[in-house]
Design a protein that fits this description.
- The complex is a heterodimer.
- Helices cover about 0% and strands about 60% of the residues of chain A.
- Chain A is mainly β.
- In chain A, strand 7 and strand 8 form a beta hairpin.
- By secondary structure, chain B is mostly beta strands.
- Chain B has no helices and eleven strands.
- In chain B, the strands form two sheets. In chain B, strands 2, 4, 5, 6, 9, 10 and 11 form a seven-stranded mixed sheet that branches. A four-stranded antiparallel sheet of chain B has the order 1-3-8-7, with no helix packed on it.
- The relative contact order of chain B is 0.33.
- The chains are: A mainly beta, B mainly beta.
């Protein structure tokens, strides 16, 4: 059974820092990996999608990498801002297109 | 382009009452999903529909039923609500390619409380 783990569960950094969020999965047979952002009381906003054949994707200050063989992905956020404060969720796509989620990393960026 | 829409946004039920959560997507996606999100448990799959006319159980299907009314709509029904079903419910849809899945899109969620 596929399991997704995110470390750390919570992270607090000062504004301007570069930071890395980690995601690991137990079964390397994935279709793709998706990173989401969730603000308190809100829905999920898709940030980046990495297909299984790709190694990384970039969008603005965000860069996500994927290493299928080791079962790992990282989300790199450059020059963090208070507006980046949210919970970040990692999910891998299962055989029926369903997503298997980690429990998230709650990020707080202090001004 | 509305994407994935869900109704209602909030609902309070008494134990034993029934209700249907509605979901619709306008992206012509084949596959649709219902998840629930609970503190400390993350998001878990309840039911999914790989295509119009088909539905299958996910990780936590007990106490729920679903209907894929047409390609656009996928509803989730609680026949006899229980306090354990207090949760936030998300509907999602995805387009499929040849031997691959693309980006999954989520609705805004329904916050359900069962007293």
């Amino acid at each position: 059974k596929q399991e997704v783990t995110q470390i750390p569960a919570a992270l607090s950094v000062p504004e301007g820092e570069n930071l890395v969020l980690n995601c690991s999965f137990t079964d390397s047979a994935i279709y793709n990996l998706q990173w989401f952002r969730q603000d308190p009381g809100k829905g999920l906003t898709s940030l980046l999608l990495i297909q299984s054949s790709q190694r990384e994707q970039t969008s603005g200050r965000l860069n996500a990498s994927l290493d299928k063989s080791s079962g790992r992905s990282t989300l790199y956020i450059a020059a963090s801002q208070p507006g980046d404060s949210a919970t970040y969720l990692c999910a891998v796509t299962g055989s029926q297109g369903n997503l298997i989620f980690g429990k998230g990393t709650k990020l707080s960026v202090k001004p | 382009n509305a994407g994935v829409t869900q109704t209602p946004k909030f609902q309070v039920l008494k134990t034993g009452q029934s209700m249907t959560l509605q979901c619709a997507q306008d992206m012509n996606h084949n596959s649709m999903y219902w998840y629930r999100q609970d503190p400390g448990m993350g998001l878990r799959l309840i039911y999914y529909s790989a295509s119009e006319g088909t539905t299958d159980k996910g990780e936590v299907p007990n106490g729920y039923n679903v209907s894929r009314l047409n390609k656009r709509e996928f509803s989730l029904r609680l026949e006899s609500a229980a306090p354990s079903q207090t949760s936030v419910y998300f509907c999602a849809s995805i387009s499929t390619g040849t031997l691959t899945y693309n980006e999954q899109f989520f609705g805004p969620g329904t916050r359900l409380t069962v007293l």
